[in-house]
Amino acid sequence: MARRELWSWFKTLILAVILALLIREYVLAFYVVDGSSMLPTLHDGQMVAVNKLVY
Known about the structure:
Strand content: 15-25%
Strand order of the largest sheet: 1-2
Number of domains: 1
Oligomer: single chain
Shape: elongated
Distance between the termini: 48 Å
Helix content: 40-55%
Number of strands: 2
Order of helices and strands: HEE
Structural class: alpha+beta
């Protein structure tokens, strides 16, 4: 019984990792602003989240 439960947890973990990678690749990305081209809205070093679905 413990082996079956361990296998279930392993499958859940693998599914979560795959889902996280797919979301990161196709849905949402995080970037750090480099330089002053976005001033005064965003400052150098700030982090922004980009929605990739709208492109």
